[in-house]
Hints:
Layout: H1 4-7, E1 17-24, E2 32-40, E3 43-49, H2 50-53, E4 63-74, E5 76-81, H3 97-111, H4 114-130, E6 133-140, H5 144-152, E7 155-162, H6 170-185, E8 192-198, H7 206-219, E9 222-227, H8 231-239, H9 243-250, H10 262-269, E10 277-280, H11 286-294, E11 298-301, H12 303-308, H13 316-321, E12 325-328, H14 341-356, H15 364-371, H16 373-378, E13 396-400, H17 412-419, E14 425-430, E15 433-437, E16 440-441, H18 446-456
Helix pairs in contact: 4-5, 4-18, 6-7, 10-11, 14-15, 15-17
This protein binds zinc ion (ZN).
Zinc ion (ZN) binds near residues 80 and 226.
Amino acid sequence: MTCEVFLRSNPSTMAITIYQAAWVLPITAPPIPQGALAIADDKIIFVGAQAEAATQPRLQHAEVIHLNGAALLPGFINTHTHLELNFFRGFLEDLAFREWILKLTTTKYERLTNDDLAASAMLGAAEALRAGVTCVADTGDSRAAFDALRQSGLRGVAYREVFGPNAADASMSLEGLKVKVAEMREEETELVRVGVSPHAPYTVSGELFRRVVEYAAQESLDVCIHTAESAAEENLLRDGSGEFAERLAARGIEWKAPQQSTIQYFAALGVLDVAPLLVHCVRVDDEDLALIGKHRARIAHCPKSNAKLGHGIAPLAKMLAANIRVGLGTDSVASNNRLDLMSEAQFCALLHRAASQHFKAPGAERLLQMMTLDGARVLGLEDKIGALEIGKQADFIALDLTKRHHQPLHDVMAAILFAATSDDVILTMVAGRVLFAEGVIQAFDEPEWQTRCKRLFPQPPSF
Ligand SMILES: [Zn+2]
């Protein structure tokens, strides 16, 4: 299917453009066969059947783009990534969690410059756009992802990380964070916001957690934390044992185990009071989920990363039953190894169905909602994105469903969830701007950034 027409139809030069497709999936309404989506500038102005669009006087002179055989749906929302770590795909295989973290941080700090991280993040942005992702919640300890989001045209939140397991260093760590965040906030845009991320309970002292959430509340900054991810983390908090405890002791850092779960610990520290975005939540029980629900905190579910690192399976069904807002996240390519939310959703469906021995836990419709509207709710962006509705931002994608692996096509939602791959994405648009079409990233020079990356890791790549 050709997308040539996309390239001359950028709405910045067109008043109204209508995209006609075999299906339009608004997400908040059933799929529309022979559907149409009309946009003006950065907004959606019509969603419905093509026959209905033909009766609308204001659409009579619009340019019409025909996408026969395609499905239009809201862009995917990846609620947890680390774009700056795109260099690390395949670099940290089959390591225990502590060794995995040590090798990652040592390599990052000893081998990579800020320019390298910028190149890594730009390739991460390209990978996301190619996979139909239009919004990213990224966590990083450089500003590389923040810059990549703005340069690539993606929408998103860049959570600036802070570390500091030694309580005595809490003031210094917070002051450093404030300087970095202030600098980034001056460059926030309509599409890209800044948040903060005290990394995890095993890298951030209780004192630093308290201070960061206090600062975040004062400054209205969203907070994101790696939470209840591993057995090592649980052991550290429950009884001060395990590999993280050993690591802290080896560094001469005093640690007194709170003898609580991570969620109870966060509740006691006041961390849950800012309703943070909690990444992972693999090791949570019913009481923890009740606390998360009570505080209106949100969860980024990253099933592939959790499985690949051997951490386990997060209790998704219980999270959803508790009405907790849950989005899907890929985590970084260091633990995935893709930034592909379609692959993530397919894995999520199969994993939880297998584990629960239930044929529909979760169903295709729910997964598509998690990839779009639920992700928007997790990021507080549901008024702008996550569904194809009049007045919402024109953040949408087109999937080519004419390929052999889609024939015959009896159920469009099942086709997208279980048969489609990210290679079926033929168009990615954010705020009415075409960012990916014709197999090419439109917003920036992807090959140039690839060349910069090859300088760092000349072996392989062999294409
Ligand atoms: Zn992460």
